Structures are given as C-alpha cells and as structure tokens.
Amino acid sequence: MLGLNFPLGKLAIAAGVHPALWAALISLGAGLAMWLITALFERNAAKPKAVLKFALTSGFISYVMPNFLTFLVISKIGSGLSAVMYALSPVVTALFSIIFQVRPPNRFGLIGIALGLAGALLIIMGRNSNFETDSKLWIIAALFIPVFLGLGNVYRTKAWPEGASPRKLASLTNLAAVPFLLLFEILLNGTLNFSPLLQIPGLIAAQLAVSTINFMMFFRLQQMSGPTYLSQIGYVAAAVGLVIGVTILGETYPILVWLGAGVVALGIAFSTWGQR
Fold it and tell me: For the chain, how many structural domains are there in total?
C-alpha cells in the first residue's frame, strides 16, 4: 500500500496538484474513513486527553515536519538526496530506540537495517536521481527529515495510550496533521488551488482507499513490532515501487536498481529473523 503512494502521487502532481495539498487530502480522507470505522465497530477505553496529546504530537513530528522539510528542500537538493534522507530514517530510528531503550534492535536487526540501507541507496543511485546541490545549508535542513521520522517512530511506541486501538490513533493522528499541511500549502504557494482535484476523481478515490488501508496496517505494525522494525517499511516501499513503476507507469530500470531491491529483501529477512 505504501509503495502505491509513489506512482499515485506522481500522477497527481503531473495533473497539477501541489504536493502539500495532496498530502493534506490523504490525511483528511484516510483520517475520516478510519474515524468512521472506529466509531461504528470499536469501543476504546483510552483516556481522551492522552489520545489527543498522542495525536497532536505524533501528527506534528511524524507527518507535518517531514513533509514540510521535503517540500522545502526538494527543489534545492534534488529528488535523489531527498530520497536518501528517507532511506536514513531506519538507521536514525534504531539509534533513538537504543538511546531511549524503546524496543531496541538486536544483532540481526542491526544487520538487516544496514543491508536495507545499502539496498535503498543502490535503488536511489540506479534510478539516476539528481544529486546536485550548491548549498550545505539545505543539506543540513534535509538531515532533519530522518531525525523527525525516527523520533516519531520511537514516540508512537513509547507514548501509545493504554487501551487505544491502532485505527483510532491512526485516524486522529492524520486528522491532526491536516491544518498544518494546509497552512504549509498556503505558505509555499500563496493559495489553496483545489481546481486540479476536480479533474482526477478516480485518482483521488484510489489514493484514499490505498492510504486508509496503509495507515490501518501501519499503526497495527507499530503496535506489534516496535519502532525499528516498523521503520524499514520505507525500504519495502522503495522496492515495491519499482514493480509498480514497471507494471503501471511503463518505467524501466538498470540492473543496479534490481540488485538493490534484492539486497533490501535480504535485509528485511534478517530483520524479521531478529524480530522473531
């Protein structure tokens, strides 16, 4: 599901939708869908104040800041270096989980993270992404992307409210991020332009279905596996995105990219072994 986000987002941006607005639409639609499911089928025993605090903090750290930094720096450092920042998030997550002692990875988990990072970098380099930049300041700003992603992964495990369901937390975390994302859209582009959305109703429906399923599984995985194992979902999504790009978008990739996907798979196997 996460891998499908990349081609869907690419098609939306090609249709004229600004990235911040698309991110806000994803969080709003998926958040409302999960809220409705929770209201109809679940009884949550969690304290409302604890859930609200979790949602606001998690939404800001995990969704708002990484998205804002990505929108801010991608035109300055290129898509290649931006992708590297996301590939670094499992490493940073492992570091924070060790520092804060929140389900730290064992030896096999660390090997898996290292292999996954190597594979992700091979994929990024093999896709001939842009690595040119003329400002170290933008690189420093971009380095905070994996920092916020790692902090968010660890925070969600450490601060998980007792009695709260994954779907409840996924819903409110996404909804809490929407106002910030819309504000960033206004700051970056000066307006909220909804007109391109009217031209792609089918794409919106597909994106909201994919995102809703993705977030429900994502938060369940967080609950069961902890921050470090969860963080490697980005490696999996990068590899899955290759298959989707070939089958749906007609893209082609050199052998180095597919080698990277194989290394990612090996890394996930080590991590799964360590997790068990």
Answer: 1
